[in-house]
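Hi everyone, sorry if this is the wrong subforum. Our group has a chain we'd like a structural model of before ordering constructs, and none of us has done structure prediction before. Sequence below.
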Amino acid sequence: MGAGDITFAERLKDPNKAASILIADDDPAIRLVLRHRLEAEGYRVDEAPDSQSALDALRSNRFDVALLDIIMPGAGGLEVLSGAKAENSRTLIIVITAASTMNNAVEAMKRGAHDYLTKPFANLDLVAAAIKRAVEVAAQAADLDRLKDEVNRQLVGGEIIGRSPAMQEVYKLIGRVVTNDATVLLSGESGTGKELVARAIHFKSARWRSPFVAVNCSAIPQGLLESELFGHERGSFTGATERRAGKFEMADTGTIFLDEIGDLPLELQPKLLRVLQEREFSRVGSVEMLKVKARVIAATNQELQKLVAARQFREDLYFRLRVIPIAMPPLRERREDIPELTDYFVGKAVQEMGARVNAVSPEARAKLLAYDWPGNVRELENAVMRAALLAPGNTIRPEDVELSPATAVASSSASSTEAGASLGDVITTRITSWFESPGSEEPRDLYHRLVAEIERPLIEMALKRASGNQVRAARILGLNRNTLRKKITDHKIVLTRYPRE
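Answer:
Right subforum, don't worry. Here is the predicted structure as tokens:
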């Protein structure tokens, strides 16, 4: 059985599996000699006799290392090498050829070859040694991939949930900023996920192996904040019994996240400005200037421009922080993400807290969608987790969802008003609320937002009415059954919540 039976993903999961080697050469005698020697070393070996089969094998990402002949039937080894690199193949490629010209060697290395060997092989021990070195490099790369995946799972956690247009814009910005070190300013209401975005930027950037240090500027007493950020020397103030490194030093070559930056005292703002302008600072009580190596990401739930106008925040610091601004949308402006967030938090409650629920009723979903969520995603998480833990059965009902009293009363009043209104009136009221949301920009993608709010609860109510029978539900909705099945998949509706009669 060939090396193709083990995928790269499987090797990541089990690094103790034997390394797999591809021999791509049109000479069957060369392939035979190399196979015997490499199998004797304990490797799994597969062969390719021409350019096309070599490229197909490399595309599969099944191999740790490949020996690739330059002159083969078809496009040739150098074109195969270029094609594999263009498709981000993880396989380390060692070029082999009898045409040992300087141009071949240079061209192979330029195109991304890991190493270069010439034929005939006077000593197969040298070939085996080259393969061993390449396998060790591949194993180290796999370890880094595995470690990075684990870090991302633990510290980013996949908790940035949402496929709404507003969140897609956020994802695009994250993708752009991870490739540079520009200062980022995250703005948005409390609970919108600013720190999650900061962590995502850090752990998806080249700095991911260095520390991520978070500082809440509003949670530290004003008299201690300078020392907390920049450190202090022994004897610099009462109680300073030893030298202490600040958060900027601790961040080293990683990222420092300054949360609630709008609460930074005016007297400290010039020092932070110097950090951003000159990339240097001094500890409290010291004249020594230390270099700043960390990336700075700041966040605020305040409107910094208003603080600048009120002379409570320096304008020059504001512009230094706002090199790349990312505005986090409030949950009420991306309601189409509420069902997915709800399901995520239910799963989290089951996995982390032992909750027994496995479903959310359509009526409960409608209640969650109708609420304005002043506390945003954080408030939704608390409400769903509480409901999942306290629900008497395995389904969250509307009465299990506890909302903030003030907003709940407003929602109840609105529901009473809407009870005698037509569906068109209710929709008009909802759209009007989007247009008149205080401080928001002109709304976008209203059609898709409205459809997302209506479609899922409508389908769930039809499935409930039809006791899970999709043919009946499609007839109730006036949809083709295949269309209904696609929408069930798109909305991630769990059919086991509607057992068939």
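For your construct planning: The first strand starts at residue 20 and ends at 24. Confidence is low (pLDDT under 50) at residues 1-15, 154-158, 406-420.
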